[in-house]
Amino acid sequence: MNSIFSLPFNQPVVIFALVLLLILAAPVLFRRLKIPDVVGLIIAGVAVGPYGFNLLERDASFQIFGQVGILYLMFLAAVEIDMYHFKKNLRQGLIFGLLTFIVPAALGMVAAHYAFGAGLTTCLLLASMYSSHTLISYPVISRFGLQNAKSPILAVSGTIVAVLLALITLASVVKLQTTGVFNFVDVVFLLLYTAGYALAVGFSFPWLTRFVFRKISDPVAQYIFILALVFIGALLAQLIGLESILGAFYVGLVLNRLIPGRSSLMHHIKFVGNAIFIPYFLIGVGMLINVHVIFNGWKVAWVAGNMVLVAILSKWIAAWLAQKAFRLTSTDRRMMFGLTTGKAAATIAATMVGHQYGIINEDIMNGAVLMILVCCLVSSVITERTSIQMRMELTAAELESSEIERPKFARQIVAVANPITAEGLMKLAVFMRSPKNTEPITVLFVRNSDDSRSLNAGRVSLHTAAQAAQEMGVVAVEEERFDLNVVSGLTNMIKQTDATDVVIGFHRKANIVDTFYGQMTDTLLKQTLKMVVLSRCFIPISTVGRIVVVAGAKSQYETGFHAWVARIGNLAQQLACKVIFLVSAETSKYIEDIISTDGYSIRRIYQEMTEWEDFILLSKDVGPEDLLVVIGARKGSISYSTSQEEMPEFLSKNFSAHNLMVIYPEQFNG
Question: What is the Cα–Cα distance from 77 to 86, expressed in whole angstroms?
Fold first, then answer.
C-alpha cells in the first residue's frame, strides 16, 4: 500500500486516475477565476510535476501521450479548416508565415548578440526558437466555431511555413556546430524530399481512405484507420528529416474533404482529442516548466525577461505588419498574435538540442523554459478574449443582414424501409440542411401489413437513420405509421409536420414494364407539391468527388428555385467539393446571385446548356466518384418541357451505375 502512494506516484492506475481528475477539475476551477482552460491545464501540470508538488514524473506515458496530443492538435487544426477558405487565403497565409518567421528570427538574433553576447550558432538557435510557435490555443478557436474566419486561417497557414523554416534553421545550426561548415546541399535535398513526400502522401492517402471507407462502414474501424494514417504520415515526415507535427498537419489537409465537419467520424475525432490526448499534452508541457529557476539569481531573471519580451514583441510586430498589409481589423491582428505566440513542440525541441550540443548555456535554457510558460499563458488569454470579441462581431453582422429574405429552414422527412440505405439517406439529408437549422428530422417508416420480415427491416431502418442523425448532432424523431400505402402515409405525415422536403431512396425496378422512378414515386409527385429528393449513392456521400447539377431552362422561375440551390450549396459546402452547373446562361446568373448573397463558400463552375439534348454530350464526363444531381419539373410547371419526359429513360440507360440524385422543387407554394 505504501509503495502505491509513495511520491512521485509510479503505479499506472494511480497516475491515470490523477490525470483524469486534473482534466476534469482544472478547467472547472480555473474557469471560475476567468482563466482559460488551456492555461489551467498547463498550470495544473506545473503543480503536479517534478518542479511542483512532485506528485507525478514526466515518464514514458507523458512522453507518448504528449507526442500523440501535439500531433492530434495539428491534425485537428488542419482537418477542421474549410478548404475553400484555406485555398482562398493561402497566398496571404504564406506571406504571414514568412513575416512571423523573419521578424522574430531577425529581432531574436540582434537581441541575442547584444544582450547575451552570443555567437553565430547561439543566435541562429535562438532565432529558430523565437520564430517557431505551436497552435496551443487552437481548441479555443474550435470551441467558438471560428475555424473558417480569415485571421485563424492565416495563422494556421502561417504556422506550417514558420515551423518548417524554423526546423530547417535548427538542422543547419546543428550541422554548423558539429562540422563547422554550413552545407547548402543538405537544405536542397531536404526541400526535394519534402516535395516528394507531399506528392506521395497527397495522392495515396485520399485514394486509400476512399477505398477503405467504401469497404468498411464501422465508425470505430474508420477512426482507427484515420488515426493510423496520421501517425504514418508523421513518421514518414520524420524519416525525411522533417518534424512529425508537419506530417500530422499535412495529413489533416489531404484528408480534410473526406471528413466532413458534421460527420460522425469528425465527432469521434474531436471528442477523443479534446477529452484525452490534447489535455494530456498540455499537462505534460506544464510538467516541463521549472518556475524555481527565476529565483536562482538576477542573471536568469534578466535572460528570461529578455527572451519573453523578444518572443512576444516580435510576434506582435509580425501580426501588426500582416494586419496593415492585408487591411484587416484590430480583432484579426489580436487573433493572429494570440495563435502564433504559444510555444511548445518545436521550441522545446530546439531548447533540448541546443543544450545537448552545448550551443546554449544553463541560463538560456532556463530562460527558454520560462519563455515557453509565459508565451503559452499570453497566447491562451489573448486568443480566448479575442475569440469572444470576434464571435460577438460576427453575430452582430449576421443580425444586421437578417433582413434579407431567405428560404425558411428545412423541415425534412426521411422515408426509410431498407436498413442498407437508411444511414446514407439520413447523412444526405443532414448535409443538405443549413448548419444553423435546429428543426428535428422526421424519420418515417410506412407499413400497410404485419409482415414480420418487412416490419423488422423497417424498424431497424428507423433506428439506423435516427442514430446516424444523432451522431451528426441533429435531433431525429422516429415515426412508424400504418397506412393504406406508402404514398398515403407520406402525404399525411407531410401535412402533419408541415414538412418542406421529403428524402427517399430510388425505387428498384420490379419488372420490365415498371418505370424508372416506380409507381410510388410517380404518385407521390402528383399528390404533393413539396420538394421531393430521390437519392441513390453507391459510395459513402462523404467521399463524393464532384457534384454535377443539371437544370433546365427557366428553372429559376419556379417557386422552389432558391430552396434547391440552397440545398446544393449546403451539400457542397459540407463535403468541400466542387459543383459543376450545367444550366443556361440566364439560369447561371440567378444561381450565382443566390450563392454569393447567402454566402456559400463553394468552388463552382458553369457550363452552358441550352437544351436537354446538350446534356447527352456533356454527361460523358460524369465519373463513378461524382454525384449527378438532376433538377426535375412536374407537368404544368414553368420549366417543364417535353424533353423531360425522356429523362427517366435516359438516366436509366446511361446512369444505372452512377451516384444519382433527382430533385423535384416545391411548386406553387406547395
Answer: 12
Positive or negative CA dihedral for 67, 69, 74, 75?
positive
- How far apart are alpha carbons 27 and 38 in whole angstroms? 8
Secondary structure element (H or E) that encloses residue 496, with its range: helix 486-497
- Spatial neighbors of 270 by CB under 8 A, at least 6 apart, are 76, 142
Confirm if 391 and 504 have CB atoms less than 8 A apart. Answer: no
Measured CA to CA, the distance from residue 353 to residue 170 in angstroms comes to 9
Distance CA 466, CA 500 (A): 19
DSSP E strands in 496-639: the ranges are 501-505, 531-536, 546-551, 578-583, 604-608, 626-631
Nearest residue to 236 via CA among 188, 204, 207: 204
The last residue of a domain, from among 395, 426, 455: 395
Which pLDDT belongs to residue 510?
A: 41
Number of helical (H) and strand (E) elements in the chain, helices listed first: 25, 10
Residue 229 C-beta-side C-alpha neighbours within 13 Å = 26
The verdict on 153 and 204 lying in the same domain is yes
> Which residues does residue 441 pair with via DSSP β-bridges, in sequence order?
476
Alpha helices in 117-183 (DSSP H): 120-131, 138-143, 150-179
Task: Decide the pairing of beta strands 531-536 and 659-664.
Answer: antiparallel
Residue 437 neighbours by CB distance under 10 Å: 17
- Report the distance separating Cα 404 and Cα 386, nearest Å: 28
- The whole domain housing 145 covers 58-395
E-assigned strand segments in 514-610: 531-536, 546-551, 578-583, 604-608
Indicate the range of 259-263, 271-275, 558-562 predicted with least confidence: 259-263
Residue 38 lies in a domain: no
Q: In terms of domains, do 491 and 632 share one?
A: no
Tell me, yes or no, whether 543 and 495 share the same domain.
Answer: no
Q: With left for phi above 0 and alpha for psi between -120 and 50, is residue 473 left, alpha or beta?
A: left
Tell me: the pLDDT tens digits for 596-653? 888 898 999 998 887 766 776 766 778 888 999 999 888 767 777 777 777 777 787 7
Residue 347 pLDDT > 90: no
Write the Ramachandran bin of 581: left for phi over 0, alpha for psi from -120 to 50, otherwise beta: beta
CB 319, CB 336: distance < 8 Å: yes
| CATH code at position 588 | 3.40.50.620
Within a domain: 49: no
pTM of the model: 0.75
Residue 335 lies in a domain: yes
Pairing verdict, β 604-608 and 501-505: unpaired
- Count CB atoms within 10 A of the CB of residue 635: 9
Q: Are residues 571 and 508 in the same domain?
A: no
* Structural domain includes residue 112: yes
Q: Tell whether the torsion through CA atoms of 184, 189, 192 and 197 is positive or negative.
A: negative
d(CA 173, CA 457): 66
Q: Which amino acid is at 121?
A: T
Residues 161, 239: one domain?
yes
3-state class (DSSP) for residue 522 = helix
- Domain termination site, one of 496, 521, 546: 521
Claim to verify: residue 509 and residue 647 sit in the same structural domain: no
